[in-house]
Write a structure and sequence with these properties.
Blueprint: E1 2-7, H1 11-20, E2 25-31, E3 43-46, H2 52-59, E4 64-67, H3 74-79, H4 86-92, H5 95-104, E5 112-113, H6 115-118, E6 122-126, E7 136-139, E8 149-153, E9 159-167, E10 173-175, E11 179-184, E12 187-193, H7 200-213, E13 218-227, E14 230-237, H8 247-250, H9 255-264, E15 277-283, H10 289-294, E16 298-301, E17 311-318, H11 322-338
Parallel strand pairs: 1-2, 1-4, 2-3
Antiparallel strand pairs: 5-8, 6-7, 6-8, 9-10, 9-11, 9-13, 11-12, 12-15, 13-14, 15-17, 16-17
Helix pairs in contact: 1-9
Bound molecules: adenosine monophosphate.
């Protein structure tokens, strides 16, 4: 039996296992939480991410160790020889370094630096450990920044896009169709792929430059702003990504399966869309699942306790009409706002 270790036992780890079990793989997760939702589909090592003993137990007999979140301590990834390699973590964990990397690679971004340099109002972000819009504030006046902050020009984007890509150990690189994403309060609500009229080739060039520069192995996502038909890179994530969940039901090979194939050194599968797909996140509280199923949705529930704004699952509609998609989004919204908030 081939064992895959994964640092982090959340829904991304769980979906990796759900993709890998049919390939005969077994999974082991490291998570500080004894109730980690990936425990339903693999063995769970409970411990801090930087605990050497826990890391050694995770890696014991594993063919490869990967991770499901970008704030894995670099030393932990190095200890277990994780793929994607630690350089992707190092470059991505600090927003300033990340933006400087984009710039070095000729990838356009929003202006960044001090508040004065980017203009007002400016979006001030924490350089580290910010996600889903957490650690962000709007600066209306010129002000000095703390050492751990970075200001960005507030981009008047037409829409948010993302590209999910995969690179194998042999350098073979594939791209899924660009997704169009709607966020609210910094949290992803809906992804639509292929994004109508998206600059696919331009997005692929951006992702390919990153993958090649980082000598990357596995799945990587790049979040993009489209402004007047041009793309600006916001950030990259060295992992499977929420805007790629539609690929489970809507693409020939899912991001989860291809991530596993990549880190194991296996041939990658085709990334084409089967049909236009829309993924709706189920946040805070779950809507009626029979109602979603009745609409033809593919429903994925992560087995997590309801809590305000928490990602509890997602539903994907493949080849559905606009009315059906709107109804699924309405069901998800109603549940999210009526949620227990517990
Ligand atoms: P982030 O934490 O960088 O992923 O940002 C979360 C969300 O905030 C993004 O998906 C955008 O909706 C918004 N956002 C982030 N950066 C900018 C920016 N420079 N200009 C406008 N909106 C932004």
């Amino acid at each position: 039996m081939t064992v895959v270790g994964c640092i982090g036992g959340g829904q991304l780890g769980r979906m990796l296992a759900l993709a890998g079990i049919p390939l005969g793989l077994r999974f082991r997760f490291l998570d500080p939480g004894p109730d980690a939702c990936a425990a339903a589909v693999g063995e769970l090592v409970v411990g801090p991410y930087d605990d050497p003993d826990a890391l050694d137990r995770l890696a014991d007999g594993a063919a490869v160790v990967t991770y499901e979140f970008e704030n894995v301590p670099v030393g932990a990834a190095e200890r277990v020889g994780a793929l994607p390699g630690p350089v992707a973590l190092r470059e991505g964990q600090d927003r300033l370094r990340e933006k400087e990397l984009f710039t070095r690679l000729g990838i356009p971004t929003a202006r960044f630096g001090g508040v004065e340099a980017v203009g007002l109002p400016a979006l001030v972000k924490k350089r580290r450990l910010g996600y889903d819009g957490k650690g962000q504030r709007l600066a209306e006046t010129v002000e000095p920044l703390a050492e751990d902050e970075l200001a960005e020009e507030l981009v008047p984007f037409d829409r948010e896009l993302s590209i999910v890509a995969v690179r194998g150990r042999d350098g073979d690189t594939r791209f899924w169709p660009v997704a169009e994403n709607v966020h609210r309060e910094g949290i992803l609500r809906v992804s639509r792929a292929p994004a109508p009229g998206a600059p696919q080739a331009e997005a692929e060039v951006i992702a390919a430059r990153l993958l090649d520069e980082l000598g990357y192995v596995g799945v990587l996502a790049v979040e993009l702003f489209e402004v007047d038909g041009r793309l600006l890179a916001n950030e990259f994530a060295p992992r499977v990504h929420n805007t790629g969940h539609w690929t489970i039901d809507g693409a020939v090979t899912s991001q989860f399966e291809n991530h596993l194939r990549a880190v194991l050194g296996w041939p990658l599968g085709p990334t084409d869309a089967i049909a236009p797909s829309v993924m709706v996140n189920l946040l805070g509280d779950l809507p009626s699942l029979p109602r979603l199923l009745e609409l033809g949705a593919h429903v994925h529930v992560y087995g997590k306790e309801p809590r305000q704004g928490r990602k509890l699952g997602h539903a994907t509609l493949v080849g559905a009409d606009d009315e059906t998609v709107a109804e699924a989004a309405r069901l998800a919204d109603a549940a999210a706002s009526s949620g227990s908030g517990a």
